[in-house]
């Protein structure tokens, strides 16, 4: 890889050993991916917390390594707009989840030093809902696969899928290796998905994304024939694309910034494949994430990816004056900033009065604190991971059906 004199000096240790390590990570990753240079990056979204799976059982050594990395990173200063991905528990929940005091202290120390390093501690998987909205063409380094697809596809910013180390390195050095969707030629769609199914709610868009993700794998799909999505529709589509497959970006014909026409999305070339998403594919995709053996449910999880204020308002409106069924938990996951808005506007009170809970800064799957047996969720991504990570039975369904299940304690097919 060709490095500038400044990049070479940092790699050689001129700015200290940790930044030299960051540069080495970026250079080695770039070389493995065929990048020819490092390019300036002005926006990052990084995991600046100890991941829940390390707190809950990956062993002391792994936890120590993660803490050492974060401590070293937070002794530096970020050099661009940098927000933080979710944490494993909101501070108000530490007592509730019986976290060992030394882990609480470690997490508080990281939070404090990350703030001093200049990270904006948004603690969310949907940074675009709480003020991190990069501009078209802006080079970013984002963790969280669902947010990466949203940034590339809906906002037309440019980010590859980042991990903890690479996003921290980008935040602290201001560079990323140039490969993948940072380059025009890799943003061209190769898979056309003709949509004839009716997409009536965000979860239907999630079904489209889950189907499209499985079909696309690592390709870039373009969806044709869809209505114009809402922000919530787009959120579900992007999250499901990244969990059904390894998609980094998509286009929606006539909607997303780089797909004014199908030809533009395809870059003037013929597609490699064309597939259809009709009513039977919609139904089959829902069925693929419904593995329940009974009708009594105990947990409803909404807000995957983190809920918008609009979604919280819908939940509050439906629950106003009602009570959840006995023994049913309702978790609505959201960023703290969104929860604060919901509290101010009265939605949080309505949800709490019904027995629901605004689960902020994290989500049940990531905090690994779900002892559920049968989950109903509106998010295809949550359903996909809950089944594997929690081992619970899962039913994916549109928001209103999830709320019906929460109020009655029963899942009614159809
Ligand atoms: Fe966010 Fe958790 Fe879903 S981190 S994308 S709510 S699995």
Rough outline: globular
> Between the first and last Cα atoms, what is the distance in angstroms?
56 Å
Low-confidence stretches: none
Largest sheet: 5 strands, parallel
| Mean residue pLDDT | 93
Overall number of strands: 14
The count of helical stretches stands at: 17
Order of strands, main sheet, comes to 12-11-10-13-14
Radius of gyration: 21 Å
State the secondary-structure class. alpha/beta
Helix coverage percent: 40-55%
Ligands: FE3-S4 cluster
* Proportion in β-strands: 5-15%
Question: Which terms summarize this structure?
Answer:
alpha/beta, five-stranded parallel beta sheet, 17 helices
Structure in words:
By secondary structure, the protein is of the alpha/beta class. It is 43% helix and 13% strand. It has 17 helices and 14 strands. A five-stranded parallel sheet has the order 12-11-10-13-14, with helices on both faces. The longest helix is centred in the first third of the chain and has 17 residues, at 101-117. The chain starts with a helix and ends in a 6-residue tail after the last helix. Bound molecules: FE3-S4 cluster.
């Amino acid at each position: 890889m060709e490095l500038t004199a400044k990049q070479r000096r940092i790699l050689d240790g001129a700015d200290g050993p940790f930044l030299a390590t960051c540069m080495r990570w970026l250079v080695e990753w770039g070389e493995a991916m065929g990048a020819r240079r490092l390019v300036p990056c002005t926006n990052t979204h990084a995991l600046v917390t100890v991941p829940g799976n390390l707190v809950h059982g990956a062993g002391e050594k792994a936890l120590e390594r993660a803490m050492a990395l974060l401590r070293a990173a937070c002794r530096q200063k970020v050099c661009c707009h940098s927000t933080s991905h979710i944490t494993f528990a909101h501070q108000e929940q530490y007592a509730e989840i019986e976290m060992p005091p030394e882990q609480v202290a470690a997490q508080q120390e990281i939070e404090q030093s990350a703030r001093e390093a200049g990270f904006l501690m948004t603690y969310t998987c949907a940074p675009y809902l709480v003020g991190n909205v990069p501009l078209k063409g802006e080079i970013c380094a984002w963790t969280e696969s669902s947010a990466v697809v949203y940034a590339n596809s809906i906002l037309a910013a440019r980010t590859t899928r980042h991990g903890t180390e690479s996003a921290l390195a980008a935040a602290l050095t201001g560079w990323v290796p140039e490969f993948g969707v940072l380059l025009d030629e890799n943003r061209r769609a190769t898979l056309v998905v003709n949509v004839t199914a009716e997409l009536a709610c965000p979860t239907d868009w999630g079904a489209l994304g889950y189907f499209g993700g499985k079909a696309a794998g690592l390709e870039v799909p373009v969806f044709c024939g869809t209505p114009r999505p809402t922000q919530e529709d787009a959120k579900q589509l992007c999250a499901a694309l990244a969990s059904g497959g390894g998609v980094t970006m998509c286009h929606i014909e006539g909607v997303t910034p780089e797909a004014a026409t199908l030809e533009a999305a395809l870059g003037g070339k013929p597609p490699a494949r064309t597939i259809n998403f009709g009513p039977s594919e919609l139904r089959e995709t829902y069925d693929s994430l419904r593995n329940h053996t009974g009708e009594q449910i105990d947990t409803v999880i909404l807000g995957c990816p983190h809920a918008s204020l609009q979604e919280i308002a819908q939940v509050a409106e439906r629950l106003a004056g009602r009570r959840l069924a006995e023994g049913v938990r309702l978790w609505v996951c959201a960023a703290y900033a969104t929860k604060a808005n919901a509290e101010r506007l009265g939605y949080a009170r309505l949800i709490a009065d019904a027995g629901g809970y605004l689960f902020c800064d994290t989500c049940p799957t990531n905090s690994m604190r779900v002892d559920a047996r049968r989950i109903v969720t509106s998010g295809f991504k949550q359903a996909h991971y809950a089944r594997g990570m929690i081992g619970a039975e899962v039913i994916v369904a549109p928001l209103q059906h999830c709320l019906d299940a929460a109020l009655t304690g029963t899942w009614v097919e159809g």
